[in-house]
Write a structure and sequence with these properties.
The complex is a heterotrimer.
Chain A: H1 3-8, H2 10-28, H3 33-56, E1 60-62, E2 67-69, H4 71-95, H5 102-120, H6 125-143, H7 150-181, H8 186-194, H9 204-221, H10 229-236, H11 239-264, H12 269-291, H13 297-321, H14 327-357, H15 373-376, H16 378-392, H17 398-413, H18 416-444, H19 458-476, H20 478-501
Antiparallel strand pairs in A: 1-2
Helix pairs in contact in A: 2-3, 2-5, 3-4, 3-5, 4-5, 4-11, 4-14, 4-19, 4-20, 5-6, 5-11, 6-7, 6-11, 7-9, 7-10, 8-11, 10-11, 10-13, 11-13, 11-14, 11-20, 12-13, 12-18, 13-14, 13-17, 13-18, 14-16, 14-17, 14-19, 14-20, 16-18, 16-19, 17-18, 17-19, 19-20
Chain B: H1 2-28, H2 58-71, H3 74-82, H4 84-111
Helix pairs in contact in B: 3-4
Chain C: H1 5-25, H2 29-53, H3 58-90
The chains are: A mainly alpha, B mainly alpha, C mainly alpha.
């Protein structure tokens, strides 16, 4: 451990220190929501600045190769910090009326984000696992944050049980991979697998390890058929937490896939590609089909998030299905990263609107709540329409470009993956029904007699502004679009250079 | 044939040993008729009460959780102790930070009133 | 057969399978938590076995096994805390009675 090591992971240390600072502040001045929220917002901005600053210097491996700070790490770290920032901005409006304290919320959230940041640059199987656990354990706590609320704890227990079940499966896969290749370092794992005779069948232990890893990861990203926990966990959790859960852990799990499957397991790509293709197809389709029948907007968005997992997996499939060294490989990873950014902002935005409507206690997330919103609160209705259009994938929003990138990458990859492109487009068309149904409710129904005005605080407005601006700008303003794409391309190339060079 | 005798002899010895020990203990032991404590699973200590399926108060579990969380951290200190000779000052500082973080957690639990018996 | 790496791996796979079955078959949240612990311990057994039979992995194995133990304890703590919270709300540890959202 040297000073350069510490400087390189300073964003990660900073986030953990910030979480502890909030705890200290809460010990000294208990129940001061303004202090903890202010500290978090300021700290996250500083943290993002620090990440960008660290990213200026050369990519380097630190801690004897267990962690790396490269463009991919920086890309993901900035995204995670942005997700945390929006969540913290949106949360007070929902938590305060319900008497839930902000200090524990922000500290727990920051610990989870530090786990995600640990994953993003991890080059060691054990560090990956620790990062994953540090990510998900606070997630369980956040899901059950409203501990007097039966729905919240019910969602939390389901999330916890399925989550730790999948962690155990994933760990067994890691242990077998480690035992088979004899190293925990991802680069050495890749080198060891590259020496295998590609024509012959894999050793049973390695094959079993691969199967277990795939299952564990599929649980984490909520791919069908490992998605059972998602609807209940998302519907039960306090709405700002749902917003976070639907993007934070999901993007982090994809980061884990990039580090583990794309880096370490690339040499045996042929063995896991078919699984990814099939999972992507059924995840998109089933997520969308079930979302069609939902009357609760939170639950509908939960199934829609499953469908979006499928779209992101199309990017992964494009990478996996493309010939080694081809342009489509890079396009697939680039699409995956770009989609993650677009999805993070539009989904957080949609959940932020649901939170804003639920400012008063007792307001449900049933679709009736949205009836006549166009007249009651035009701004909220317009923003919700924007997010839903983006989720549908209608130009010129961020969602359109994201879908376009993944689908084009899939077409480029050819073979079975191009079938996925067709399925993705068909799914996007079907998804329009349930997204637009909410829009119809907002603009074409009369508000219920009992409806009361929608209240939004300054922080909530700031959160909505960030998500809305990003959703529009990523799609509509060419410099921003190309900036994000450029960043994603550099990040994707890092992975490919590594896997090619062994 | 000698094999069979061995088995029979062994069976006889085994069975008689059981009766022998029971018989000796019957001869040697004091017999207190009506002493309730003799029949209890634990002869000494305070009297047991309730049945085996009695429930603990939920408050117990909070303490148990805190105990498990802090107890398991000892394994890191154990590893640290093994290599202490090689790390010295740097190791001491790292461990101070580690224990400091743990204490912060405990202090937070205390401040939040988790340690108050309810 | 006894004392080979393979037999230990098979044993750990069996334990893991028992844990998986327990998780899927039991409906008591505490029992499911115990099953998960069994699965984690099965993994730990395989890790320790790798360390014992492959000299190059000995150091790694010790560290990984201890890390897994620490993580398992943290997981159990969070899990039990959630179980306590849900028990206070619904007065039952049986997961199939947690069905408010499936009406």
């Amino acid at each position: 451990m040297t000073e350069t090591d510490l400087v390189a992971i300073s964003p990660l240390i900073f986030v953990i220190a910030l979480a502890m600072l909030i705890i200290v502040a809460d010990i000294i001045w208990p129940d001061r929501d303004d202090i903890s929220t202010g500290l978090t917002v300021a700290g996250l901005l500083v943290g993002a600045g620090l990440t960008v600053l660290v990213a200026q210097s050369e990519a380097r491996e630190i801690f004897a190769g267990a962690y790396v700070v490269d463009p991919l790490t920086s890309f993901l770290d900035v995204l995670f910090l942005a997700i945390a920032l929006v969540t913290v901005l949106v949360a007070p409006d929902y938590l305060r009326p319900r008497g839930l304290p902000m200090a524990e919320f922000t500290a727990t959230l920051l610990f989870a984000i530090s786990g995600a940041m640990l994953i993003s640059g991890s080059r060691d199987l054990l560090v990956l696992f620790l990062g994953l656990e540090l990510l998900v354990l606070p997630g369980y706590m956040l899901a059950g944050y409203a501990k007097r609320d039966g729905y919240s704890t019910e969602g939390a227990i389901k999330y916890f049980l399925l989550g730790s079940f999948s962690s155990a499966i994933f760990l067994f896969g890691l242990a077998l991979t480690w035992g088979f290749t004899g190293t925990t370092r991802i680069r050495e794992v890749a080198a060891s697998l590259a020496q295998l005779d590609t024509a012959s069948a894999l050793a049973p232990a390695l094959l079993m390890g691969l199967a277990l890893l795939t299952t564990g990861v599929a649980f984490k990203i909520a791919a069908v058929p490992f998605h059972y926990w998602t609807p209940d966990a998302y519907q039960g959790s306090p709405t700002p937490v749902t917003g976070y859960l639907s993007v934070g852990p999901k993007v982090a799990a994809f980061a884990l896939i990039l580090r583990l499957f794309v880096e370490a397991l690339a040499p045996i790509k042929a063995d896991w590609t078919p699984v990814v293709i099939v999972l992507a197809a059924i995840t998109m389709t089933l997520g969308n089909l079930v979302a069609l029948t939902q009357d609760n907007v939170k639950r509908m968005l939960a199934y829609s998030s499953i469908a979006h997992t499928g779209y992101i997996m199309v990017g992964l499939a494009a990478y996996a299905g493309a010939p080694v060294g081809s342009e489509a490989e890079r396009a697939g990873l680039e699409g995956l990263l770009f989609y993650s950014v677009a999805y993070a902002f539009m989904n957080l935005g949609a959940f932020a609107i649901v939170s804003a409507l639920q400012h008063r206690r007792g307001v449900t997330s049933q679709i009736e709540t949205f009836a006549g919103l166009g007249r009651r609160a035009p701004w909220a209705a317009i923003l919700m329409t924007l997010f839903l259009l983006s989720l549908t994938g209608i130009p010129p929003t961020a969602g359109f470009f994201a879908k376009a990138y993944v689908v084009l990458a899939a077409v480029q990859a050819g073979g079975w993956v191009s079938v996925l492109a067709v399925i993705a487009v068909l799914n996007a068309a079907a998804a329009a029904f349930y997204y637009l149904r909410v829009v119809v409710f907002m603009f074409m129904r009369d508000p219920p007699e009992t409806a009361r005005p929608v209240l939004t605080g300054t922080m909530m407005r700031a959160g909505l502004a960030i998500t809305a601006v990003m959703t529009i700008f990523i799609g509509l303003v060419p410099p921003v679009t190309s900036g994000v794409i450029e960043f994603a391309r550099v990040a994707a190339e890092v992975l490919l250079v590594r896997t090619a060079g062994g | 044939m000698t094999g069979l005798w061995y088995i029979l002899g062994f069976a006889f010895a085994g069975i008689s040993f059981v009766f022998l020990t029971i018989g000796v203990s019957w001869l040697l032991s004091h017999r207190h008729k009506g002493d309730r404590h003799k029949g209890l699973p634990y002869e000494s200590g305070i009297d047991t009460y309730g049945d085996t399926w009695g429930r603990f108060g939920l408050s117990f579990y909070i303490y148990a959780l805190l105990f498990v969380a802090f107890d398991i951290e000892v394994i890191f200190i154990y590893l640290w102790a093994l290599v202490f000779r090689d790390v010295l000052v740097g190791g001491l500082v790292s461990m101070a930070i580690f224990v400091g973080i743990l204490l912060l957690g405990l202090g937070y639990a205390w401040r939040k009133g988790v340690l108050t018996w309810r | 057969m006894s004392g080979s790496l393979q037999s230990y791996l098979i044993l750990s796979a069996l334990l893991f399978a028992i844990g998986t079955f327990g998780f899927l078959a039991r409906r008591n949240a505490i029992a499911m938590l115990m099953s998960i612990e069994l699965m984690l311990n099965a993994v730990n057994l395989s890790i320790v076995a790798f360390g014992a039979f492959i000299p190059a992995l000995r150091g790694d194995a010790a560290i990984i096994a201890l890390m897994v133990m620490a993580v398992a304890a943290a997981e159990a703590t969070v899990g039990l805390a959630i179980v306590i919270a849900i028990y206070r709300n619904s007065r039952t540890p049986l997961v199939d009675e947690y069905d408010r959202m499936r009406q």
